[in-house]
Amino acid sequence: MQPKKLFLIGFLLSVITLNAQTDLNAYKYVTIPNRFDFQKSDDAYQVNSLLKFLFNKKGFEAFLTNEIFPIDFKTNPCLSLNAKVVDESNMFKTKVFIELYNCQNQLVLKTELGESREKELKKGFQEAVRIAFTTIENMPYKFTDDKRIKDIIVLPEIKNTINEPVKASQEVIQVDEIPVPENNEVAAMTDKKYQEKVIVIAENAAKIKVPSIEGVFASAAKTIAIAKQGNQYIISDKQQNVIGILYPTSQANYFILKWLQSDDNTPKLLFLNEAGDVVIDEKQSVLKYNRM
User: I need a surface site. Which of 69, 72, 138, 287 has the fewest CB within 10 A?
Assistant: First the structure.
């Protein structure tokens, strides 16, 4: 092939990649359905909560459709992308890809196909979703407040025709950053993606607060207790043995977890969701502990 043609192909590919990155940078939020077309129940195989976790980890603000949305999302839905997981599995492999649509239902991004040979459906779907998500993971992302996106939609003014009382003004409260302990392993996990200040939004005088991490939590296999000790938190089992340590980050509902009684002592990311349950990002799966 002639050098000029090779250069032209390379240039076009770089332009396509740049446009995809710019498109993603213009979006602040990602909304994820509670149930995709291939699922028989909400969050089956924990695919939806895994996807929310991965988008939050990437730097987006991700929400399931039954959760409370921020004020600027409500006034301008075009700041958000809508995520969809498409299942193309067969008898031998779990196959999925992820699609992202804008507020006009236009396809913005379609990932590479993620495949898994895991026979257990939960492990298979989670592995396939993680592989598909690498397309997004490998793309640089930083939200830019792009006026072009804001101008896509203009919401009409809604007049009060039934003499309702004036609602309380919307209030935004900024919470100070929580210092992170100086620890090399922990510092490696607390890069800029996790260093944004936590904004607690109160709408109509009803303040939304992050639940406390302290408490008792249970999964199908294990029950744990989390309690504060100094500037960190300890995790204990039923026999009151200390099995892990949690280090706070500057984001109130994210913690760095280090198991003490495990062959894998790599720091993990722990997320406290809106319901007060604990979600832990393990190697090939997401473990969820429900608050008791």
Answer: 138
The answer to whether position 154 is within a domain reads no
According to DSSP, the residues that pair with 99 across neighbouring strands are 84, 110
Is 157 among the domain residues?
Answer: no
Q: What is the number of structural domains in the chain?
A: 2
Range of the domain at 273: 171-291
Q: How high is the pLDDT of residue 3? A: 52
139 lies in the same domain as 189:
no
161: in domain? no
What is the identity of the amino acid at 170? Q
Residue entry with tokens 């935004």: 172
For residues 187 and 249, is the Cβ–Cβ distance under 8 A?
Answer: no
Other CB atoms within 10 A of residue 172 CB: 11
pLDDT, tens only, 146-173: 544 443 333 334 344 334 444 444 444 4
**What does pTM read for this prediction?**
0.50
The answer to the question of residue 166 being in a domain is no
Say which CATH number the domain at 203 has: 2.40.128
> Is the alpha carbon torsion for 52, 54, 60, 61 positive or negative?
positive
Does the structure show a pLDDT above 90 at 55?
A: yes
Among 71, 89, 1, 88, smallest CA distance to 29 is for 71
Question: Is residue 85's pLDDT more than 90?
Answer: yes
Amino acid 96 reads V
CATH number at residue 104: 3.40.50
User: pLDDT-based confidence at 105, cuts 50/70/90?
Assistant: confident
**268-272 and 278-281 as β-strands: parallel, antiparallel, unpaired?**
antiparallel
Shared domain check, 235 and 137 = no
Closest CA to 170 of 69, 268, 246: 69
Mapped onto helix, strand or coil, the DSSP state of residue 214 is coil
